[in-house]
């Protein structure tokens, strides 16, 4: 009779194995990633799996716990010291006795809490660049004068299959002490970024060391966000964020580039500031996760091109002017110490590649996360900041560009604009009959027309309008006829409503008449029109490159996207016509991309390869951009129809 059939979930890999084969060995043979620090000695507990019971007609398998060997003495011993969750088994000890469906628990779930407004929970399959390998090294022998580290290498080759190992030089002086501390048993951390790269021992601990962590970090111009993740389970143990201290050198990216150009020490000061902030965040996540800095062995970063350069200590001046030359566009792999990041002394870092001079490693991270290159659907991905980064494509072809939207979407350049903070108006509705508004203020529970609003609002204050509400208020003004399709505030409405105020030669809309008058002026509407026209023209340019009339699905990455209502974005024509249910905010997709690259080195190759194939379009050099921009000034657009919006 045939050998038992074993099916691994969630990967779906399957194969036949002789009775008595350990489940771990079967997983290895099939290339299913199951962690194992102790090398099958039943001491690390990292190799846990679960047997699914039942008939799996589709796969032709009946799986049952009777088809796996009963708990043996080694596994019992482990369970006595450390608990094993109900139903779980150590795959290194459990052997195959019959057909099995084996579940490899994936703790590496990016859940909706971590990625705000993420469409759904998502599992990242693990295969990190750093592994822990426990070995028992032969004691020294006068007759076989092979060095301590060389004998360790022999064992790492025999038990773990690593050949051509190199050892981080800093370990040479410490190795003998470490080897002798626990009777020639050690755990080696081995870094191997890709299948072809040379494996390197980057850290050593006496005996069994069962902790290894990594950080995934998104360096934004305004905020820096970090996750601390267990490389052994994939679990996010802590997350934190801080504002980028470079803000004191300049609010937006270009002002930071000019700071570097004007000040001889400018570059150095900004590099120092961002590295310091990253280091403080490491302290924070370590403290809240109860993790030692020296247990962090890998770190992955994403950033826009200017942040990327400043973090690496590269002068970003070239990025401030055409042709926007990056010093380096490919992925960077180096030691953490090379960028003055003190983690484990052997820790490594990896920076995702940049796509173009204005489309950075953050856009690469978002691309990795959302995966336009993995689908048949035509996917549009936008990350709106001072520059909008735009990626459009599918499995066949992907193009990218950036468009100078300016800071209007973030509330700057708007008379009553402010950052999203308590006191800022965040939602707006305007009654098309009376032109009376209702709105919602950050920090106040009720809408403006609900009971208790006035008292609550008095405490918080109403101080301005944040970016998402500016989109809404302009869209509502358009829908209620306060502004025309050209974006002109209609003065004739003043006769109809006291909300329309005369303002010299133009008119404004009075949104709130309180201690602080909150108005939307003609200039505000213009600023939004300019920003949205730049975004739309950039998108349209890419659509023309790919010769597509419509997009199938839209992803809004970044904070801005998390708060705006897709409907209003379409009413104003920020984005092209699309099924509303296909417009999704994906939160910090760049950060999710960093997490994926941290937890699975194959994702590093995937994005490196994808980025080389993405066609880069420089909007400034495209003669057609100007016309697209002019057409996009109208609401929602002078030439393009929005049929989905009407339905
Ligand atoms: Fe360590 Fe199974 S591999 S307990």
From TrEMBL:
Taxonomy, superkingdom: Bacteria
Q: Any stretches that span the bilayer, and where are they?
A: none
Spell out the InterPro entries in the cross-references: 2Fe-2S_ferredoxin-like_sf, 2Fe-2S_ferredoxin-type, Beta-grasp_dom_sf, Corrinoid_activation_enz, Raco-like_middle, Raco-like_middle_sf, RACo_C, RACo_linker
Q: Which residues form the signal peptide?
A: none
Q: Which SUPFAM superfamilies match?
A: 2Fe-2S ferredoxin-like
Concerning PANTHER family, the annotation shows:
IRON-SULFUR CLUSTER PROTEIN (PTHR42895:SF1), IRON-SULFUR CLUSTER-BINDING PROTEIN-RELATED (PTHR42895)
**Segments forming domain 2Fe-2S ferredoxin-type:** 4-108
Q: Which Gene3D superfamilies match?
A: 3.10.20.30, 3.10.20.880, Domain of unknown function (DUF4445)
* The protein's name in its UniProt record: Uncharacterized 2Fe-2S/4Fe-4S cluster protein (DUF4445 family)
């Amino acid at each position: 009779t045939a050998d038992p059939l074993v099916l691994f979930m969630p990967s779906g890999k399957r194969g036949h194995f002789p009775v008595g084969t350990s489940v771990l060995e079967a997983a290895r043979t099939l290339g299913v990633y199951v962690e194992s620090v102790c090398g099958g000695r039943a001491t690390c507990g990292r190799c846990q799996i679960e047997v699914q019971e039942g008939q799996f007609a589709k796969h032709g398998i009946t799986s049952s716990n009777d088809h796996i060997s009963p708990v043996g003495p080694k596994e019992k011993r482990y369970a006595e010291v450390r608990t094993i969750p109900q139903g779980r088994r150590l795959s290194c000890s459990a052997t195959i006795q019959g057909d099995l469906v084996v579940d490899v628990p994936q703790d590496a779930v990016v859940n909706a809490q971590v990625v705000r407004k993420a469409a759904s929970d998502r599992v990242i399959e693990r295969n990190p660049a750093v592994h822990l390998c426990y070995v028992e090294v032969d004691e020294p022998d006068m007759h076989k004068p092979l060095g301590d580290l060389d004998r360790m290498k022999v064992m790492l080759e025999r038990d773990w299959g690593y050949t051509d190992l190199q050892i981080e030089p800093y370990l040479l002086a410490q190795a003998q002490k470490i080897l002798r501390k626990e009777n020639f048993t050690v755990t080696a951390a081995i870094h191997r970024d890709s299948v072809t790269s040379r494996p390197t021992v980057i850290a050593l601990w006496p005996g069994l060391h069962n902790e290894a962590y990594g950080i995934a970090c998104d360096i934004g111009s305004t905020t820096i966000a970090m996750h601390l993740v267990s490389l052994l389970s994939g679990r996010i143990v802590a997350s934190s964020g801080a504002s980028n201290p470079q803000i004191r050198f300049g609010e937006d990216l270009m002002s930071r580039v000019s700071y570097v150009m004007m000040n001889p020490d400018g570059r150095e000061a900004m590099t120092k500031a961002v590295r310091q902030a990253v280091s403080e965040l490491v302290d924070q996540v370590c403290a809240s996760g109860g993790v030692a800095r020296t247990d962090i062995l890998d770190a992955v970063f994403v950033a826009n091109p200017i942040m990327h350069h400043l973090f690496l200590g590269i002068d970003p001046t070239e990025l401030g002017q055409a042709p926007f030359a990056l010093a380096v566009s490919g992925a960077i792999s180096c030691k953490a110490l090379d960028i003055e990041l003190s983690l484990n002394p052997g820790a490594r870092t990896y920076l995702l590649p940049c796509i173009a001079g204005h489309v950075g490693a953050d856009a690469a991270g978002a691309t990795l996360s959302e995966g336009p290159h993995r689908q048949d659907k035509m996917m549009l991905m936008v990350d709106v900041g001072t520059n909008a980064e735009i990626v459009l494509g599918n499995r066949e072809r992907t193009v990218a560009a950036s468009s100078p939207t300016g800071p209007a979407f973030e509330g700057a350049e708007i008379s009553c604009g402010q950052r999203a903070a308590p006191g800022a108006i965040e939602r707006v509705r305007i009654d098309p009959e009376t032109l009376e508004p209702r709105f919602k203020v950050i920090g106040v529970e009720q809408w403006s027309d609900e009971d208790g609003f006035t008292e609550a609002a008095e405490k918080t204050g109403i101080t301005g309008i944040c970016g998402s509400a500016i989109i809404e208020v302009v869209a509502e003004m358009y829908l209620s006829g306060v502004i025309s399709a050209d974006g002109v505030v209609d003065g004739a409405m003043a006769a109809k409503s006291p909300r329309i105020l005369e303002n010299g030669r133009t008119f404004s809309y009075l949104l709130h008449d309180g201690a602080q008058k909150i108005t939307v002026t003609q200039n505000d509407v213009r600023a939004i029109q300019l920003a949205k026209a730049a975004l739309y023209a950039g998108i349209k340019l890419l659509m023309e490159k790919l010769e597509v009339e419509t997009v199938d699905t839209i992803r809004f990455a970044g904070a801005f996207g998390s708060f705006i209502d897709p409907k209003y974005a379409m009413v104003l024509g920020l984005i092209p016509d699309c099924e509303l249910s296909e417009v999704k905010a994906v939160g910090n997709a760049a950060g999710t991309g960093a997490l994926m690259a941290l937890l699975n080195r194959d994702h590093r190759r995937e994005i490196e390869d994808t980025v080389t194939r993405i066609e880069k379009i420089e909007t400034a050099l495209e003669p057609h951009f100007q016309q697209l921009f002019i057409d996009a000034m109208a609401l929602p657009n002078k030439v393009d129809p929005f049929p989905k919006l009407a339905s």
